[in-house]
């Protein structure tokens, strides 16, 4: 069973560790190790994660599947209706088994957004295909 656990400062180490593991497994073939290392240092050092939580008001959710932390999501909103999805990362060994779909549906149910916007690297075909699938699945439900 999937649970989204609202993260706080006490979870910064967990988020940073998850980011390093997931980014190195997924993004190296897309953008290269040097760019992955740079992005991890810029976005996932403890100080920057603290800023994202406190100053930028990002809401981080740890993704738990059967009580195992498998990834995280980050969103923000200025009006509690229109959200931006900053981060949506799941361990590679959990991809293609429905966990991402279940997470996104749970997030939408939790937030009840009027809109949910995100950006994806144009070379990240796996994520683009997943998002197209989930959009079709949600709109047909």
Give a verbal description of the structure:
The protein is of the alpha+beta class and 141 residues long. Helix 1 (12-26) packs antiparallel against helix 3 (33-43). The chain has helices spanning 12-26, 28-31, 33-43, 46-54, 99-111, 125-140, and strands at residues 2-6, 59-65, 68-77, 82-90, 115-117. Helix 5 (99-111) links the parallel strand 4 and strand 5.
Key traits:
6 helices; alpha+beta; 5-stranded mixed β-sheet; single chain; 141 residues
Quick summary:
The protein has 141 residues and is an alpha+beta fold. Helix content is 48%, strand content 24%.
Order of helices and strands: EHHHHEEEHEH
Name the strands of the widest sheet in spatial order: 1-2-3-4-5
Q: How many strands?
A: 5
* Assembly type: single chain
Instruction: Indicate the low-confidence ranges by residue numbers.
Output: none
Strand content: 15-25%
Structural class: alpha+beta
Largest sheet: 5 strands, mixed
Helix coverage percent of residues? 40-55%
Mean pLDDT: 87
Shape: globular
Radius of gyration using CA atoms only: 15 Å
**C-alpha end-to-end distance:** 20 Å
Topology (SSEs and partners):
Layout: E1 2-6, H1 12-26, H2 28-31, H3 33-43, H4 46-54, E2 59-65, E3 68-77, E4 82-90, H5 99-111, E5 115-117, H6 125-140
Parallel strand pairs: 4-5
Antiparallel strand pairs: 1-2, 2-3, 3-4
